[in-house]
Amino acid sequence: MPGDTYPKFKAAAVQAAPVFLDRDATIDKIAEIVPRAKAMGADLVVFPESYIPTFPVWNILLAPIDQHGFFRRFFENSVMVPSPQSRKLGEIARQNEVFLSVGISEKSDYSMGAMWCSQLLYDRTGKLINRHRKLVPTWAEMLSWTPGDASDLRPVETELGKIGTLICGENTNTLARFSLLAQGEQVHIACYPPAWPFRRVASKTGQGGSYDMKEINRIRSAAHAFEGKVFVIAAASVLDEDAIEQMTEGNPENRTLLENAAKPASMIVGPTGDYLAEPVVGVEGIVVADIDIAESIVLKEAHDIIGRYNRFDVFQLHVNQTRIKPVRLYSTASAHEERTPSPSDFEELGPEE
Question: Residue 105, Cα to own-chain centre: how many angstroms?
């Protein structure tokens, strides 16, 4: 007698350059790329970290005193949620009948400077079903982004399976990864930048003073996939000539640094830790692969770290999923009675009006 069945679908990791610091033009580019991925059979389409309006590589490249102009442009072109721009992303998902994951720089509605590195996930109807804010901006990123919280650090149950998201360096955060797995994650979205120059001198691998992006993205993707017996869709962006020209501002040393930076790599990895399709490295492209959630079952027979291959009487993880706010306002009637919320207090986890 047949038992339960589990989702099968195609996933796409998009590796592409945004239109540098141009929010609306980048959204238009997304609208052009998603139908291509759909034509390749994709049900889930994943775009890179901070794809809108770009990843702030200048945080690494320039002294803080030289970044003011970039910071202003970055804020002006970041995305508020909800907004006409976030609604347009939902419309792209709806028109193409795909699940759509897009990295954005998200700006707040209460500060003329607060931003988060966020990843949005829309379902086929255009409904925003998750918004994950990066827990800790990495290294120089703290010059642009504020820390997020764990309010959306959870996999979302969908017709494709339970989908979770971590951004760039969070994929090396053991507890963040485990928290998603422990909540039942089956499909993991991992998003990455176009470049990560870390030294001005060449590394031992000859990667222009940077990490070998293909190798470290493979290691992180394979580790999470193999440990959790899940599927990982990893998407990175690309530095195009326009971005290099604008960020280097005629400085030949910085241009050489960016031109020689390790090339980005996007990939899809299965629960054995193996590639499910050939990665895209250094250029724009789309990686598409078949996902069969049931493939995890037999692998968990031997090694299930959120089941019988663990000791929860020995190890315990506590996750605070409270949304962080700069102020909580109360009425004078009672110190424990919060004021009536305004519309901006609500999370955009449904269709936008």
Answer: 11
Active site members: 49, 134, 168
- Residue whose C-alpha is closest to residue 93's, from 134, 26, 141, 43: 43
What does the alpha-carbon distance between residue 164 and residue 321 come to, in Å, rounded to a whole number? 15
The contacts of residue 53 (CB under 8 Å, 6+ apart) are 18, 19, 20, 21, 22, 23, 26, 74, 77, 78, 79, 105
Residue with tokens 């079903």: 129
CA distance 305 to 318: 16
> Tokens representing 246?
């604008």
Per-residue pLDDT of the chain (353 residues; tens, 9 = 90+): 789 999 999 999 999 999 999 999 999 999 999 999 999 999 999 999 999 999 999 999 999 999 999 999 999 999 999 999 999 999 999 999 999 999 999 999 999 999 999 999 999 999 999 999 999 999 999 999 999 999 999 999 999 999 999 999 999 999 999 999 999 999 999 999 999 998 887 545 555 556 799 999 999 999 999 999 999 999 999 999 999 999 999 999 999 999 999 999 999 999 999 999 999 999 999 999 999 999 999 999 999 999 999 999 999 999 999 998 999 898 876 555 555 555 444 444 554 43
List b or e across 296-326, with b for residues whose CB sees 16 or more CB atoms inside 10 angstroms: beebbeeebebeeeeeeeeeeeeeeeeeeee
Regarding pTM above 0.90, the answer is yes
Q: Which domains does the chain have, with CATH numbers?
A: 8-345 (3.60.110.10)
- Angstrom distances, CA of residue 348 to CA of 30, 126, 313: 21, 12, 37
DSSP 293: G
Q: Residue 120 in 3-state DSSP? A: strand
